[in-house]
Structure formats: C-alpha cells, structure tokens
Design goal:
Number of strands: 7
CATH topology: Protein-Tyrosine Phosphatase, Chain A
Pfam families: Y_phosphatase3
Shape: globular
CATH superfamily: Protein tyrosine phosphatase superfamily
Distance between the termini: 34 Å
Order of helices and strands: EEEHEHEHHHEHHHHHHHE
Protein name: Phosphatase
Number of helices: 12
Organism: Lactiplantibacillus pentosus (Lactobacillus pentosus)
Number of domains: 1
Oligomer: single chain
Structural class: alpha/beta
Family: Belongs to the protein-tyrosine phosphatase family.
CATH class: Alpha Beta
Largest sheet: 5 strands, mixed
C-alpha cells in the first residue's frame, strides 16, 4: 500500500510522570482527498478509525474533498475561518512570494489568539473525550493547524517539549515526497521566487511552534491559564483526557 502522506499515531510518547500515551487512539495526517481502496481499508479496518476531524478551510474542502467511508463520522473544525489570509493553504503558498518565515510566525500567533481558532481547538479536545473511538485529524498538509492540535494534545498530557517538537518536525521528513510532487505539479505556474517561497512554506520550522507557545505565555501567563481561559476547557475535561489517553 502506498503510504498516506504524513500519517502517524500520537501514541507511544512517555510523559514526565513516566506514563505512556496510549497508541491506536489518535492519528494525524495530511488531507485525505485521494485515498485508494487499500488506504481506506487500512484506515477503517486496520487502524479502526471511526472519526475524522477536518481542520481545513471551506475552499480547501471544496477543491480537495476528503474520501470517507460509511462507518466514519466526519467533523469540520475550520480553525482559520476568521483569519484574513490563510498562509497554510496551498493556493496562498503558490501565489505569495517573500517573507515566508515572517508570515508563518504571524499565522501561529493567530492560531494561539484568534477566537475561532481557540474555539476550534476547544472542540477538538472535547471530541477526544469519547472513549474507544479512534480519531484522525488533519488540515491540508498536516503541519500547521494539525501541528498545533498535536502539540496541544501532547502538552496537556505533560509530554516533554523535546518530544513535542520532534513530532512536529517529523512532518518535514514525512512530507518530503509529497512536497516535491507539488513543486513539480505547479512549477509552470510559478516564477523562481515563487518556487522558493513554496518550498519554504511547505515545511515546518521550530520557530513557528516555539512562537505559538511564547504567545500563549505572553497573553495568558501559563499554559494552564490558556487551557481554561483561552480555550474554555474545564478541569474535569482535562482530567478525563488524561485518564483516557495515559497508561502506566
């Protein structure tokens, strides 16, 4: 079976209390618009995924609709719905040039502070409180909205910053072939400057996620305050998440 781009489990990490994140419950990936029959069977039968959370914009969902199957529940959480320019979308990557790093840093600030983004991440965490129903979440590339969602989940479970960043940066390796295919597909439409910008926009940088957590610290004081005040999550919900996803 051809691998599904940027698909991986968030299980197996050991937190600071030496508890292990349960495997087989939460997965992240890129968009699911061209799944083969074998890939569908793998997701549905082998991984037993029963829920998909799509964090993409309406335009992305219309242009590249997910392939789903009869037994899966599909939920949309448009994280960047109220953001003026979605720098995480393929179309923006192709048409923009210059200052990619600065634009992406700004995007991650919006992921931390924008009201719709915060509401979407609250709903994402709440969706994880359903027991024994494996869930897959994704955006276009599985790197920005998805990357922050994965980092939030792991940090709530008290996984170390080193492990969180390692999972985040693994996207660059997992997307290498897919990114090259995108560059080749759109090369004729892009100037050399645009090609360089797209190359940069298709990868993640440690600075982006670091800035996200710096913004959280600056505006909310602590990560716990962000969870309670910024995302509106209750202590009971956070405790339930830890009970469901951590094992000794």
């Amino acid at each position: 079976m051809e691998p599904i781009t940027n698909l991986r489990s968030l299980g197996g990490h050991r937190n600071r209390q030496h508890q292990v994140v349960r495997d087989g419950l939460l997965y992240r990936s890129g968009q699911l618009d061209h799944l083969t029959t074998a890939q569908i069977n793998y997701l549905a039968s082998t991984l037993k995924i029963t829920r998909i959370v799509d964090m993409r914009s309406r335009d992305e969902r219309q242009r590249f609709p997910d392939v789903t199957w009869a037994q899966v529940d599909y939920q949309v959480l448009d994280v960047l719905a109220q953001v003026t320019q979605n720098d995480a979308s393929l179309q923006t990557m192709i048409t923009s040039t210059g200052a990619v790093h600065d634009r992406m840093v700004q995007l991650y600030e919006q992921l931390a502070l924008d009201a719709t983004a915060r509401g979407s991440y609250r709903q994402f965490i709440q969706a994880l409180l359903v027991p024994n129903e494996p869930l897959l979440f994704h955006c276009f590339a599985g790197k920005d909205q998805t990357g922050v969602g994965a980092a939030l989940f792991l940090k709530i479970l008290d996984v170390s910053e080193t492990q969180i960043m390692a999972d985040y940066l693994l996207t660059n390796e997992a997307r290498a072939a897919a990114n090259q295919q995108i560059i080749q597909q759109y090369a004729a439409q892009m100037s050399p400057d645009q090609q360089r910008a797209v190359n940069e926009a298709l990868v993640v940088d440690e600075d982006y996620l670091t800035h996200y957590f710096e913004v959280v610290q600056e505006h909310y004081g602590t990560f716990d305050a962000y969870l309670h005040t910024g995302l509106g999550l209750t202590a009971a919900e956070l405790q339930r998440l830890r009970q469901l996803y951590l094992t000794d």
